[in-house]
Write a structure and sequence with these properties.
Radius of gyration: 19 Å
Oligomer: single chain
Number of domains: 1
Helix content: 40-55%
Largest sheet: none
Number of helices: 8
Shape: globular
Structural class: mainly alpha
Number of strands: 0
Distance between the termini: 50 Å
């Protein structure tokens, strides 16, 4: 979301303060290279979205094409059950959806189960 409250107030958010709070939530953020962000920065989402398919996998999930011909990701998506979905318009609902996705993704990445040691020899050594 570009820092352009006039695009969202009052249609999506009641005032600039609420817009600023929402814009700074994790679900509104996307990590892309500085050069990419600088070249597309304040453009409306609909104009930037097609270019996300040339970026990292998380950025690609905003586009329909990010789900095409990508068997490793599609397999992960199916196994994980995480709520990935392309986003045609980025507004309040999309932000909330991305917030939930990032929360669930972080919970999976940092789950205790991923860090448990396998096998009794390793577990015993770790306990010492």
């Amino acid at each position: 979301m570009a820092d352009k409250p006039e695009r969202y107030v009052p249609d999506v958010y009641p005032n600039e303060h609420v817009f600023a709070e929402e814009r700074n939530r994790l679900g509104a953020l996307l990590l892309v290279p500085k050069s990419f962000n600088a070249s597309y920065g304040a453009l409306p989402y609909k104009d930037k979205r097609p270019h996300y398919n040339s970026q990292n996998l998380l950025a690609r999930t905003f586009t329909d094409e990010g789900y095409d011909h990508n068997p490793k990701f599609l397999g992960y998506w199916e196994r994980s059950g995480l709520p990935f979905e392309s986003v045609a318009e980025f507004g309040k609902d999309a932000l909330q959806g991305r917030q939930a996705l990032y929360r669930d993704l972080a919970a999976e990445v940092w789950s205790v189960e991923r860090f448990e040691l396998k096998g009794s020899a390793s577990a015993g050594a770790a306990a010492a």
